[in-house]
Design a protein that fits this description.
The protein is mainly β and about 270 residues long. The protein folds into 2 domains: about 130 residues, Immunoglobulin-like (Sandwich); about 120 residues, Immunoglobulin-like. The chain is built from 1 helix and 17 strands. A hairpin with a 4-residue loop joins β7 and β8. The longest helix is centred in the first third of the chain and has 7 residues. The protein is elongated. About 20% of the residues are buried.
Amino acid sequence: MRSILLLAFLPVCLVAAPALEIVKPAIAQSDGGDALPANFAHTAGETMFFTCNVSGFTKSPEEQIHLTYSVEAFDPKGVPVAEIYKNEVQEEVGPQDKNWLPKIETQIVLPDILRPGTYKIVVKAGDLLAKTSADLSVPFEVRGRDVAPSPTLVVKNFRWFHNENEERPMTQPIYHAGDNIYMKFDLTGFKYGANNKVDVSYVVSLVLQTGKTIFSSDPIVEQSESFYPKPYITGEGGISLQKNFQPGTYTMAIAVKDGVGKLSYEGKFQFIVQ
């Protein structure tokens, strides 16, 4: 009988308050746009409009709330792809606002070059009154062309075209006198300086079968700093063959220098003139 009496006098205030929670996450292509499906293929350089809400917060006796929050996007290896967004909410929330939830909204600009994979947005919120916190991870997919990393400086994915506007490379690099030659390739394996600085340059040269160089471009330089380290650099170049250009097998040499890592590399790629 004593235990029953003790339970009867337990104070009602011991009922637990709802836990702080991040709810209704959504990614859209425009401000106020419709939420995209989870399998939507985002691309490098895209601006994502992210929103979510916070529930389970505590109010003070004066009907005030005080929340802090952050939003940050990460690549598949956990490297941040954009600067973290931080803010806070201090509002008066009266009885008439019983269904209102604080809203978090920000834009995430993806870097111009990203490897494909599953990325994530991590949202963290804190309730300064209740001393509680919550976090939520929202995955999103990035699609695009991949360039495998390299431990050393190298030219990869060398492709032959007739002009810079062609999207599909030639299956065999066979040209004729008077043709335009256009090349696209990727540079990777370079080193980073402070603030993810890169300092990469390359020279395109046309070499005869005898080994004699008959044309060299001016150095093409990529010097930049960025929040997110560039995974690779896309290079390109072109020449026009004279109408009396002799048939034969020729070499296009790509001489690359990495000013940060003090590295150099030369790739040689053959083509045929018929």
